[in-house]
Amino acid sequence: MALHRDIFWVGRQWAVTGAGIQAIDQRLRGVLDIEIARLWDESLVQSRRAKPGVNAEDFDKALTMARERFPETPASAPFLAQLKAFGVIETPVVHPVLPAMQLRAEGRLARFLPQWRVRR
User: Fold this and answer.
1) Which of 43, 83, 86, 99 has the fewest beta carbons closer than 10 A?
2) Alpha helices (H) in 1-120, listed in sequence order
3) pLDDT tens, 22-55?
4) Residue 80's closest CA among 92, 68, 72?
C-alpha cells in the first residue's frame, strides 16, 4: 500500500502517517503496516518488531510518535460510559439478517435467461 498522503514523521524505515505506522519500503506492499485502531495491540506490535530486517530503534520511535498523535481512548468513550451508567443504552443494536441471494441459473445458457435492468 502506498504511503498515506498525511505524513507526520519519517524515519529511516518507518513513517507515521494518517493511516498509522507504515513501512517506507513500498516493495513490502503494506504487509508490516499497523493501522491506527491497532496501535495499542501489544501482540501485533511485538510480532511486527520480531520480523527479520526490522530496524527496532526506528520502529520504537515511530511507535511512540504514533501513540502520541493517536491516543488510545477515543473522545466518545467517556460519553458512552455515561450513557450506559444512566441506562440509556441497555441492549446492543441488532441488525436484521437479510436472506442470501440464490442464483437459479445453473445448467442454463446465459443468452437464454431473461435480462433484468435497474429502473430509476
Assistant:
1) 99
2) 42-49, 56-69, 77-86
3) 888 877 777 788 888 888 888 989 998 888 888 8
4) 92
